[in-house]
Amino acid sequence: MKPELRIETLEDSSILYIRFRGTYLAFRRNARKLFTELYTFADAHQLIRPDVTKVLTIYNDNPYISAPEQLRTSVAMTIPAGITHLPDSESISATTLNGRYAVARFDLRPKDYGEAWTWVYQEWLFKSEYTLRDAPPFELYVNEPPATSKGSSITDFYIPIE
Fold first, then answer.
1. Rounded to two decimals, what is the model's pTM?
2. Which residue in 44, 63, 84, 105 could disulfide with 4, CB within 3.0 to 4.6 Å?
3. In the chain, % of residues over pLDDT 90
4. Which tens digits make up the pLDDT trace of 43-56?
5. For residues 66-81, b (16+ Cβ closer than 10 Å) or e, as one string?
6. CATH number belonging to domain 4-160
7. How far does the chain reach from its first CA to its final CA, in angstroms?
8. Which residue, among 5, 14, 18, 15, has the nearest Cα to 101 in the 3D structure?
9. 31-40, 76-85, 125-134, 136-145: which range is least confident on average?
């Protein structure tokens, strides 16, 4: 498992997100519902741009430090720059992503994500010249998820670095 690697700097990438608190297993069970809620909101407010909007999952906590039931994971999507006001929503928030990231592009089956995260940190980051900075890592989905567990999809892992 060796991905394509690049360094990228994000400047004020606007996103919408819904945060979930709980185990990664509970998150996976609820992810489809959360993404549907996010898409419905974004579509209703004309925030989706075909071929421009990207979908991501943000990992706000370190699973080796935080209690599993307290892990915060967010479903998110990019929105057009310059959006300064969103209609009220109890569950949907907006923020920006900024800074320097190492980006590892993988072609993965659903069962391979854990191994890919381990490779990024243990095989690449800790052996590289880069240091982690205080920002959450995330997965950006380059194409549609596979229809079955045997299919694969391309995912970029964004690791915040100094």
1. 0.91
2. 105
3. 76
4. 999 999 998 999 99
5. eeeeebebbbbbbbee
6. 3.20.80.10
7. 25
8. 5
9. 76-85
